[in-house]
Design goal:
Length: about 400
């Protein structure tokens, strides 16, 4: 059922509605570096979260989901504590927005997410969707950067995952067919136009069949390992350092890493290695995109995938298997697991004329190794898209 259909069913008397569509994102290069103030790239895709809504004057929230049972139904005057249900995301949006804005009007609405959860940053898309709907209901105008920061703050402080700004930025700034290049150090962005020789491409999204949750995963442990590496290197090098929570690998020049990498515990050293190498890959990748050199860009994406698995040491056995299969598959320019890597999906940049054979090749090989994933494994193809829109 579509969001509009369910809305009609739940609120038959309401005819005046608004719509938010927030796309999901993929990040071909620049994985696991945003929380260390690194450089990233990304696209929004033409699949995402849709919400049909109307404002309420009495401060009530009444939201239904096409994907999950139950209702998020409460008064905004109540204490908005987390209950570990899907409705937490709208509570968190209200709590976080209220730190800066006056949010008194509520919403009635229906939300619907496409595709299985995991790896495409559906959590950021849901948060941005709620925030935009609430902003519209309360006449709040926010800059794009403010929206990125507020959505990130909800995920960090209310949901409890120490994320960077990658997901929110891709889902807000992106423009169709352009590669988003973001430096999370100073929030500068560029929408990079592909060179004229760029062959046509689409994205394959390959679901491992295992859904993923970031909260409670090793995501926060990896962030702490990066910070520990940064702190240790600053101490070895006699650099000034402040609070541990404010230490980032970006604060430490790469030369210092080469000088002290063998003194640190191996795990910390590997996380730092991934950071410096991934940042360099992003710069090369952006240039390859500018030149229209998809083969070079794709090769870097494969290298990034390798580093995420073997150096940053994330990714499940399912995602590692998909990585090896993608490397062998004709028609794939480059691929890697998508997002944080705690199950979920992989992404690949593909030649659109070879989609059928790619699907057959990957499905056969993957299910031979994971037959138990037969019903939940899936491949879909999508294109790049614009960032979030309210209409
Ligand atoms: C998740 C986080 C992002 C980023 C990626 C890995 O999607 O939300 O901030 O760290 O993982 O690149």
């Amino acid at each position: 059922m579509t969001a509009a259909e369910l809305f009609k069913q739940k609120f038959p008397d309401i005819t005046e509605t608004q719509r938010v569509f927030c796309p999901y994102r993929i990040c071909p290069l620049g994985a696991h570096v945003d929380h260390q103030l690194g450089r990233v790239t990304g696209f929004a895709i033409d699949k995402g979260v849709e919400m049909i809504f109307t404002p309420t004057d009495d401060g009530m929230i009444e939201v239904y989901s096409c994907n999950y049972p139950g209702t998020a139904c409460f008064s905004m005057k109540d204490e908005l504590t987390r209950e570990f249900v899907w409705g937490d995301f709208i509570k968190g949006a209200i709590v976080t927005l209220r730190q800066k804005y006056d949010v008194t009007r509520g919403i009635k609405g229906v939300i619907r997410g496409e595709l299985p959860v995991g790896g495409l940053s559906s959590s950021a898309a849901v948060i941005i969707t709620y925030m935009l709907a609430l902003c519209s209901a309360n006449n709040i105008t926010m800059s794009q950067l403010d929206m990125v920061k507020t959505a990130q703050a909800e995920e960090r402080d209310y949901i409890g995952v120490n994320v960077g700004k990658l997901d929110q930025s891709c889902e807000i700034y992106s423009r169709k067919d352009k590669l988003l290049f973001l430096d999370t150090l100073d929030d500068s962005t560029e929408l990079v136009q592909a060179g004229t020789d760029m062959p046509s491409y689409e994205f394959a999204i390959i679901f491992s069949g295992v859904e993923r949750k970031l909260a409670g995963s090793a995501y926060n442990t990896r962030v702490d390992e990066c910070k520990s590496a940064a702190y240790a290197m600053m101490a070895y090098a006699g650099m000034d350092y402040g609070k541990f929570e404010e230490a980032h690998l970006r604060d430490v020049p790469v030369g210092i890493y080469y000088e002290y990498k063998d003194k640190m515990p191996m795990n910390w050293s590997k996380r730092a290695q991934h950071f410096y190498e991934e940042n360099a890959r992003v710069l090369k990748g952006v240039e390859a995109w500018r030149q229209g050199d998809l083969a070079a860009f794709g090769k870097l994406v494969f290298e990034s995938g390798y580093s995420s698995i073997h150096v940053y040491e994330t990714g499940s056995k399912e995602l590692s298997t998909l990585y090896e299969i993608m490397k062998e598959c004709d028609g794939i320019y480059g691929g890697r697991f998508s997002g944080a890597g705690f199950n979920g999906c992989s992404m690949a940049i593909v030649d659109p004329s070879k989609k059928e054979q790619i699907t057959a090749f990957i499905t056969e090989r993957y299910l031979a190794q994971f037959p138990e994933r037969k019903d939940s494994f899936a491949i879909c193809y999508c294109k790049s898209a614009d960032g979030v829109k309210l209409s």
